[in-house]
Amino acid sequence: MGLANKSQTSPDTFLLMGIPGLEHLHVWIGIPFCSMYVVAVVGNVTILAVVRAERSLHEPMFFFLCMLSITDLVLSTSTLPRMLCLFWLGAHDIAFDACLAQMFFIHSFTAMESGFFLAMAFDRYVAICHPLRHTTILTHARIAKMGASVVLRGVAFFSPHPILLKQLPYCRTRIIAHTYCEFMAVVKLACVDTGATKRYSLSVASVIGSCDGFFIAVSYVLILRAVFRLPSREASFKALGTCGSHVCVILVFYSTAVFTFLTHRFGHNVAPQIHIFIANMYLLVPPFLNPIVYGIRTKKIRDHVLSSLKVKVT
């Protein structure tokens, strides 16, 4: 009731509720969330530092990995600190413009993450299926163009989101039943018909996600076909191990994304706690897992980090 009264006297702010029904557990939920954020920041910063310092890592795979790490840092930092303030400090208020900015960063950088997964899958395809042409196909200039196109796509398709929401009148409650400013959670608060706005958002998300997912699947099918044709069983197992860990991260990202999308489209009977929790995992788990899977399991990065630690210890 206090939140409702406060929302009526703060027309320039929204109020984040958190996870409905689990407010009494917010402090405890924040502990694993904070731990995942720390691992994500340390892991992704380490990857960026190692690739920058080690010239032997200046290869297409690691350039794309750095792009993914930057995306993960922005994505997690745009949500986790604010979420922890909500969980631990009870800071429910968020300025309207700050809410729109957070929404833009979340949706645009999620699209960029998907695009960089596709770029990395293409890199693995070229490296395994056309190893002799790898450096000629993925030149530095071409890598830069691919990275720029992924960024521009995310910005272009999701810039309309805050602009559209800025134009809507909000005469209902200002309480957002979520832990962050999700587009669908905010658009529900408008007091006009928002069907076209919702359809635009869902269409953009579905087109980007389905296209990226399709081409990633095609890349790994071709990779597996090439791997099974390798004469050495040891080489086949090594390639399968690397691809398997990459596929696991991609599956986590897309499965949570698909669940969130289907919940908005069809899952009106899904409990809000489940939907919000999965939506949080959608933003937290990939930045947490990516440096572990792509960093620790990559021998060149692992060896460089271990050698640096040995130097510091001695």
TrEMBL record:
Official protein name in the record: G-protein coupled receptors family 1 profile domain-containing protein
Cell compartments where the protein resides: Membrane
Topology class, membrane: Multi-pass membrane protein
InterPro entries: GPCR_Rhodpsn (IPR000276), GPCR_Rhodpsn_7TM (IPR017452), Olfact_rcpt (IPR000725), OR51/52/56-like (IPR050402)
Transmembrane residue ranges: 25-50, 62-80, 100-122, 143-160, 207-228, 240-262, 274-296
One Gene Ontology CC term in the entry: membrane
All residue ranges annotated as the G-protein coupled receptors family 1 profile domain in the record: 43-294
Primary role: Odorant receptor. Putative odorant or sperm cell receptor.
SUPFAM superfamilies tied to this protein: Family A G protein-coupled receptor-like
GO MF entry, a single one: olfactory receptor activity
Broad class of where this protein is predominantly found: membrane
Source species: Canis lupus familiaris (Dog)
Keywords from the UniProt entry: G-protein coupled receptor, Membrane, Olfaction, Receptor, Sensory transduction, Transducer, Transmembrane, Transmembrane helix
Pfam families: 7tm_4 (PF13853)
